[in-house]
DNA sequence: TGTGTATGAATGAAGG
DNA sequence: CCTTCATTCATACACA
């Protein structure tokens, strides 16, 4: 969490603890609509945030990822509307027999192995 | 990752949680140069990994896809001055951490993968 | 010192 | 392949 007061940088911690200024700037950008910054944007942002404390590109990347996800999560929790998100998972449930498995993946070409063509039986 | 001592198996999670042994084997193959396993290879690998826990072909497929992509990102040191579509970076410490004591390589199967992926007994 | 919470980090799974 | 989403693990900190 690294809340105010004790600003990050000096912590010998293994993980990034953004300073108040950094968080402020990030939130500013977030409010501005930024959600999935490109690599270039991340680079720029990182450079800018560096003026306020140690920070790496990955920190910025994760910050946006997490902030967006949790923003959504909070909203979801607040409005528990009907479960409209039916997940239609059909488990392959395989007992994954070891040796002579039934034809699982029924195409054999040396072609691309894309998930879309998986055939679960 | 699914550390917490309790490896995968009993998790009621819907997603695959590779065991330490499985990860180790996958890492080994990756280090051996395997990047885009063919459907056949995936099938073999899956069969082999099944000796160490539940796993499906798509898990293996995704593992290689993700590992390759993130490995690449990890290695990125710098970004071009121009915001092209460069990659996002992650930290550089990759070394796979054994989440458990690991008593691997004990499988005695005479199985072979690809020439690059030699797994001696 | 234990417990809950906020959040950094990681990665499986898709989507495009 | 690259990008994004979802879920989880890990950790710092507030509070008791």
From TrEMBL, chains A, B:
Residue ranges crossing the lipid bilayer per the database entry: none
Looking at the UniProt record for this protein, which Gene Ontology cellular component terms does it annotate, in alphabetical order?
Answer: nucleus
Q: Where do the Homeobox domain residues begin and end?
A: 9-74
Q: What is its main location?
A: nucleus
One GO BP: plant organ development
Instruction: Return the Pfam families for the record.
Output: Homeodomain
- Domain of life, source organism: Eukaryota
Where, per UniProt, does this protein localize?
Nucleus
Q: Is this entry keyworded Zinc?
A: no
In this entry, the residue ranges of the DNA-binding region are 11-75
Alphabetized, the UniProt keywords read: Developmental protein, DNA-binding, Homeobox, Nucleus, Transcription, Transcription regulation
Named from the GO MF annotations, one term is: DNA-binding transcription factor activity
Q: Which family would the database say this protein is a member of?
A: Belongs to the WUS homeobox family.
What is the protein's given name? Homeobox domain-containing protein
> Whose protein is this, by species?
Kalanchoe fedtschenkoi
